[in-house]
Amino acid sequence: QVQLVESGGGLVQAGGSLRLSCAASGVTVGNDAMAWFRQAPGKEREFVAAKDYTTRASYCAASVQDRTIVSRDNAKNTLYLQMGALNPEDTAVYYCAAAASKVQVRNIYYTQSYDYWGQGTQVTVSS
Known about the structure:
The chain is mostly beta strands. It is built from no helices and eleven strands. The strands form two sheets. Strands 2, 4, 5, 6, 9, 10 and 11 form a seven-stranded mixed β-sheet that branches. A four-stranded antiparallel β-sheet has the order 1-3-8-7, with no helix packed on it. The radius of gyration is 13 Å and the shape is globular.
């Protein structure tokens, strides 16, 4: 049984930073693509960042790419998201996602490419 458990969310002041963790069980972090998405109230879930384990490449949304790092710890089977220069527009529930099979790079940005999802962790950025 695959489980993804996010942690690290909370209340952050504008200009601050966050580090989210996604602990995976039942799926090996190093096998296929894993990603972070976020969903703000009244909005669709949107791509934030992803890690492709075949190429070791990282992908970030244009809105966050200059201030975001996505990384993994294979020994801990954990995916991380570090984001700085936070602003109120970053307020959302952040979700970790994992694919059950290979995801082509052109599809790495879409929720439909991922089979497993965590419960989400709330990040609130105050102005």
